[in-house]
UniProtKB/TrEMBL annotation, chains A, B:
<dbReference type="InterPro" id="IPR009014">
    <property type="entry name" value="Transketo_C/PFOR_II"/>
</dbReference>
<dbReference type="Pfam" id="PF09363">
    <property type="entry name" value="XFP_C"/>
</dbReference>
<feature type="domain" description="Xylulose 5-phosphate/Fructose 6-phosphate phosphoketolase C-terminal">
    <location>
        <begin position="594"/>
        <end position="795"/>
    </location>
</feature>
<dbReference type="InterPro" id="IPR018970">
    <property type="entry name" value="Xul5P/Fru6P_PKetolase_N"/>
</dbReference>
<dbReference type="Pfam" id="PF03894">
    <property type="entry name" value="XFP"/>
</dbReference>
<keyword id="KW-0456">Lyase</keyword>
<keyword id="KW-0786">Thiamine pyrophosphate</keyword>
<comment type="similarity">
    <text>Belongs to the XFP family.</text>
</comment>
<feature type="domain" description="Xylulose 5-phosphate/Fructose 6-phosphate phosphoketolase N-terminal">
    <location>
        <begin position="15"/>
        <end position="377"/>
    </location>
</feature>
<dbReference type="Pfam" id="PF09364">
    <property type="entry name" value="XFP_N"/>
</dbReference>
<dbReference type="GO" id="GO:0016832">
    <property type="term" value="F:aldehyde-lyase activity"/>
</dbReference>
<dbReference type="InterPro" id="IPR019790">
    <property type="entry name" value="Xul5P/Fru6P_PKetolase_CS"/>
</dbReference>
<dbReference type="InterPro" id="IPR029061">
    <property type="entry name" value="THDP-binding"/>
</dbReference>
<dbReference type="InterPro" id="IPR023962">
    <property type="entry name" value="Phosphoketolase"/>
</dbReference>
<dbReference type="InterPro" id="IPR005593">
    <property type="entry name" value="Xul5P/Fru6P_PKetolase"/>
</dbReference>
<protein>
    <recommendedName>
        <fullName>Probable phosphoketolase</fullName>
        <ecNumber>4.1.2.-</ecNumber>
    </recommendedName>
</protein>
<dbReference type="InterPro" id="IPR019789">
    <property type="entry name" value="Xul5P/Fru6P_PKetolase_ThDP_BS"/>
</dbReference>
Length: 807, 807
């Protein structure tokens, strides 16, 4: 391990005292890191280290930790000297013990966890709890103060960092990117986020690529490519790379201090120029980034059992193990711990000595206590426009058509406008804002863009609050970072391609779930998805664009976190949008279509319907409040249309059939109450779906999803679901429903199949439906488009409401 | 639109004749592309264009198409002149009509689809079928000859290209990367694939970044950054970028021909040096790549309705629309089509003129007929070692422990060895091969690596057949490309993080599904996943590493494509591995653990069990073949262990309880036969699970997955599932099961709850189980690890088989 001799006089930027203190801080952080990984007891080594002091299971990651603490120590220096406002994003989140160690040295950890005090007893608890049952996880999980990024799954640190920096002009987000993480796709794409960061309006991101050379059992790519390629790569990404390379502590302290000063100077220069009109139309600035090349497991054992350990992947997790079987390893551990000279670092009570405490900043300047990293502290509600101002007005169901997401776009335009001063609302998406028909927002803002702007460009500007990059990963990461720092937003995406971020969704859901247990974590705004251009509207792009399965990924996460909404028309979509923008600590998935579609509910009715999340549509039903012959349920805009068209056929053809139409907006209402807070009680469910009548359920996604939600319900055996069966290609919109058996004719056939008393009419109507289907097929094959729609909705007009002519 | 005057004499590399012919080919391809998007009839414009000749719905993407055809034409030239072996990967797969056009000009399309002949009638059909109901999709779907990449979801072209090039030393994979696609994470990561390509052993990838400047409604990042950054970026990625920029056809032909010659020369030089010992230990070569900057919608209408169209995003899809309402647009379309001078391109019969045909290569040198792009043509079975040679030998169930994946690793080592000469088997993974305990493969091969190798490096070499990069996307793309070109492989990954490739999985499943309908597509090897370090073994990394939901993503895809295996021990894992490596056109998901675990089945029994996929374990059951009191079902290694431990407790405590143990290896057996080819008939299912007895089902993943699979079964109402409920943190392995109620004690309690006749023993045993749980909790909180295991399996030893001492 590294010889921690007294640091020599530097003769450089740092005074001897500064050098000594910063090194002591770093040694203390390393000591506390190793302590967490190894020690159950004897935290200050005040007695000889024995096996009983060591944890029986050694868990955790040493390799990245000394580098993380080195960076932390030097950021502290810069913060102190400049009164800078900095948060720290730890890409290699498995360096959790290092992050905990630093927050403990800053005092924040003890403030938030009073039983882990800054004394020997507290240190014992600090060590013991780490990766211990009932204790804390090994990653930079939500219980680590100052963390907005757990880093368990790699790849998202840099997009989180940019998300945090947007609209936070005073903030510098220091983002440590591991060289393993740097190999991931999401991270590789996120470097280009600098094309969207406006130095006049946004804060700064300072990426620190930590090249410690190794992953679990392999070298990393970026650590092994030639230096000139590394430099070219980051120049190509648009940064000014600054290098800190070495392993000798005194030299490295000196160098890091100087490079960090340089980086912060450059940031200040860029921001000053942009904010003082010195470079208003200049091209995007070249922001600095730092490449820190230091040994993996730096200051750890150089060799273990004759094998290279420091500066190699053997340091990745626990460099010394098998202590029970190998007394030499126990001795080596003690020697290693003592190499940091704990007696110089902690006082008699076990608290860090004053000189070490003094190297950290104070109060909320501490990165572990910066309110931006506990965004709920800063979160203010978003101002919302009046729902009725945007409502589609309709005299009766089916009276008009509207483009649902277009209407939502006008609402979002006003959200943008109302919160323009607060600068706390953004829309992100992969170049699909207009394609998803939200283009009205461009009346009040633009797409953010820091590259060249040509005269012919449309809605492109430096101050745009819509962020579009063809990377769903980057969109998701930006929005997460933006929300985690206390702001609001929406991610608009094609339904099929939101699967690209399945795993990021999972991680964010787990983050939110873990936060519920941490009292000092304040609620953050929900992550809201609008999934449009959905499976039923991908008839033009074809099979590869058809996938409604994200809902199923979402349903696997904790009920408290996830909501799925399937508004059937524009007014219900508005209600849902208005609602989700007011919620916190959730992930809301809204699926809604964009083409002109029939509208069903007035705004007043939509509000009532959405509040319940599910309900009987009396105006479409023919059961007059009595027990129906059949329940026709629907969830999703296209299934609702096809169900209502089927109902219209049945009203015409089987006038005495008692039909009950149930529409589901909030999918979670279907689950039992004990499984989801929105779930109906069994009594409520039975009141809607009966206990014994056939239920023909037309659903937006995969049919089994409805079964998965309702298998405990009394009437489950009678629920027959139609949905997407992976039958699709490039065809017409109506043919998409036919291919999957979700169309009106198949729905009528389902009713014929399952309603027992229809014996007489069954054969004739079945033939009629079959011939309709043949007619459809012949028409689209010859015309290449759907037959003109001859539906004539007459709902809600008294006894004559049934349609007058055949459909 | 571009003035297609007679091409002037070039005075450069191309003779006048060559220039003329290549331009004619290109014009023909463009004409055919526009024809597909627009025309129902009058394909050669032999009468004035009228509205009735035009499709009613205009679908497709013009913007990228002329660039794709330009590249195609020039690759054809290089192939002809050098007799090169080239396939074409079309990243912007939505340029489908261009790809179809080129394959039609090469004659391949008509050979494979005889009713689309090379005459006027065939051309009419070619046009009509595109994006038309019953016709072909708008992307480069499987029905496009020469395509191994549909490109519907963007981001995977380059990893597919490298996958195709591995172990194909004579192949050059030309890979067109769209500048939109280049913004995605997976694509950004895939550039680094060059660090794994060995010029001596592998083929070459020639990336062609097509900068046409725009996505759907935005400029692209790479098209707008300064030229020096663009150059630095690709230098940094390790390439030698060659630029082709402009829009004037004659100039561009000349330039492209010359740059392509340069690129192919460079490839030859690199390969020659590597293969002739001229550069055996040299660093990775700088492979060439091409940046082609040409206008979006090149040669299309310059302006439409006064708005810039050529060279702008308005060209992205259909530049001229609303033809019915706007006669000027119809006239413009005719003018545009005629600008290519079709009368010079097609003869009286409607076939491409001889000069155009002659610019394309012949037979299998045509990129559309290259067998590598229909990999099943080249696929040879993989040689497999004997199962019994690798079997764990055990006298009776529970006699020994083994590390399942370690045993699998020894099998894979021999697969590597047996197929070393054939060079057709690879393992990919994100730096987890050893972590997942497959390290025995390193006895016969290494990790492939073309960067510097240090003396201390372990199992790292130029010829390694294990590919590790910390990018699940790149791993998946490589393997897909490798399989699609006729080879075999395995992707080993942590279970939780395979969600990262959910969307790629979906796309590959859709590709395979579509291939089933295309007779000339030969079967390719299945894509095999080993998911290890699974949810129940992530007690050390914690919550972020726990997610068994990939199975659910897989289940949503077509039954013919997907298989999910949950082998309970090493021998069953071997059987499953042996099986999946012999299958084709499937995606096989295997979930198996790595720590030392009890073994249950001898190899002979394992073979029988795996062949059935599900079965009663007589040796653990106590129903003696009669109707049981309870069925205890299990799927997955940890659930099987906990179920058997629960059975042991019950045998001890309730000796007369008739228990039937059912183990499920092949999850698909649970589905009804009509839903999945592996599904049990209802009779078979009822014979195993009874029609009315309680079933306590311990399952590896989310409990509702079992309900989703079995909701149609007779006895479904009595199936009670325990599984993962998103309750996890950093704790002990056994505590993971306790937190989720999957442990033996909770399983016993389930039996007590649901078996009616247990009245008397219920209370006492329930208390015993509760106190066991309390004991467990107290123990791990104080010791930090699980209690020593005191199980003593005595299965299968006659009447005394029940355990002798309490557990």
């Amino acid at each position: 391990m590294t010889e921690h001799t007294t640091i020599p006089a530097s003769g450089g930027l740092l005074s001897d005292r500064e050098l000594h203190d910063i090194d002591a801080y770093w040694r203390a952080a390393n000591y506390l890191t190793i302590g967490q990984i190894y020690l159950l007891d004897n935290p200050l080594l005040r007695e000889p280290l024995r096996l009983k002091h060591v944890k029986p299971r050694l868990l955790g990651h040493w390799g990245t930790s000394p580098g993380l603490s080195f960076i932390y120590a030097h950021l502290n220096r810069v913060i102190r000297l400049r009164d800078a406002n900095v948060i720290y994003i730890c890409g290699p989140g498995h360096g959790g013990p290092a992050m905990v160690a630093n927050t403990y040295l800053e005092g924040t950890y003890s403030e938030l966890n009073p039983d882990i005090a800054m004394d020997e007893q507290g240190m014992r608890k600090l060590f013991r709890q780490f990766s211990f049952p009932g204790g804390i996880p090994s990653h930079a999980a939500p219980d680590v103060p100052g963390s907005i990024h757990e880093g368990g799954e790699l790849g998202y640190s840099l997009s989180h960092a940019y998300g945090a920096a947007f609209d936070n002009p005073d903030l510098v987000v220091a983002c440590v990117v591991g060289d393993g993480e740097a190999e991931t796709g999401p991270l590789a794409a996120a470097w280009h986020s600098n094309k969207f960061l406006n130095p006049a309006r946004d804060g700064a991101v300072l990426p620190i690529l930590h090249l410690n050379g190794y992953k679990i059992a392999n070298p990393t790519i970026l650590a092994r490519i030639p230096e000139e390629e590394l430099r070219a790569l980051f120049t190509g990404y648009g940064y000014e790379p600054l290098f800190v390379e070495g392993h000798e502590p005194a030299f490295m302290h000196e160098r890091m201090a100087s490079v960090l000063d340089d980086a912060f100077d450059r940031i200040q220069t860029i921001q000053h120029a942009a904010r003082n009109g010195l470079a208003p139309t200049a091209p995007r600035p070249k922001w600095p980034m730092i490449v820190l090349r230091s040994p993996k497991g730096w200051t750890g054992p150089k060799e273990v059992d004759g094998l290279k350990t420091e500066g190699f992947w053997r340091s990745h997790q626990v460099p010394l193990s098998g202590l029970a079987e190998n007394p030499a390893h126990l001795a080596l551990l003690e020697e290693w711990l003592k190499s940091y000279r704990p007696e110089e670092l902690f006082d008699a009570a076990g608290a860090p000595v004053a000189a070490i405490r003094a190297t950290a900043p104070q109060a909320t300047r501490r990165m572990s206590a910066n309110p931006h990293a506990n965004g709920g502290l800063l979160r203010r509600s978003v101002d919302l426009p009046g729902l009725h101002d945007h409502a589609v007005s309709l005299e009766r169901p089916g009276a008009v058509k509207a483009e649902s997401t277009r209407v939502m776009g006008s609402f979002l335009r006003d959200v943008m406008r109302l919160n323009e001063a607060a600068k706390n609302f953004r829309i992100v998406g992969p170049d699909e804002t207009a394609s998803n028909r939200l283009q009205d927002v461009f009346e009040v803002t633009e797409r953010g863009w820091m590259e060249k702007i040509l005269p012919e460009d449309v809605h492109l500007g430096r101050d745009g609050r819509v962020l579009e990059i063809l990377s769903e990963h980057t969109c998701q990461g930006w929005l997460e970072g933006y929300l985690l720092t206390g702001r609001h937003g929406l991610f608009s995406c094609y339904e099929a391609f939101i699967h690209i971020v399945d795993s990021m969704f999972n991680q964010h859901a787990k983050w939110l779930d873990a936060c519920r247990e941490i009292p000092w974590r304040r609620p953050i705004s929900s992550l809201n998805y609008l999934l449009s251009s959905h499976v039923w509207h991908q008839e033009h792009n074809g099979f590869s664009h058809q996938d409604p399965g994200f809902i199923d990924v979402a349903l696997n996460k904790k009920a408290d976190i996830v909501r799925v909404y399937l508004p059937p028309d524009a007014n219900t979509l508005l209600c849902v949008t208005d609602h989700v923008l007011q919620t916190w600590n959730r992930i809301n998935v809204i699926v809604a279509g964009k083409p002109p579609s029939w509208q069903w509910l007035s705004m007043d009715k939509a509000i009532v319907h959405c509040r319940a999340g599910i309900g009987i549509w009396d105006w479409a039903s023919t059961d007059d409040g009595a027990e129906p012959d059949v329940v026709m349920a629907c969830a999703g805009d296209v299934p609702t249309l096809e169900t209502l068209a089927a109902v219209q056929i049945l009203r015409q053809e089987v006038p005495d059939l008692r039909i009950r139409v149930v529409n589901v907006v909030d999918l979670m209402t279907l689950q039992p109450k004990e499984f989801h807070p929105h779930g109906l009680s069994d009594r409520e469910f039975d009141a809607l779906f009966t206990t014994d009548k056939p239920v023909i359920f037309a659903y937006h996604g995969y049919p089994w999803t409805i079964h998965r939600l309702t298998y405990r319900r009394t009437n489950h055996d009678n629920i027959h679901v139609r949905g997407y069966n992976e039958e699709g290609t490039t065809t017409t919109p109506f043919d998409m429903t036919v291919m999957n058996g979700l169309d009106r004719y198949h729905i009528v056939e389902s009713v014929l199949q399952w309603v027992p008393r229809l014996g007489r009419v069954r054969i004739g109507l079945k033939q009629k439906m079959d011939s309709k289907l043949l007619e459809h097929r012949a028409y689209i094959r010859s015309h290449g488009q759907d037959m003109p729609e001859i539906l004539d909705w007459k709902w809600g007009q008294g006894p004559d409401a049934a349609p007058k002519r055949p459909v």
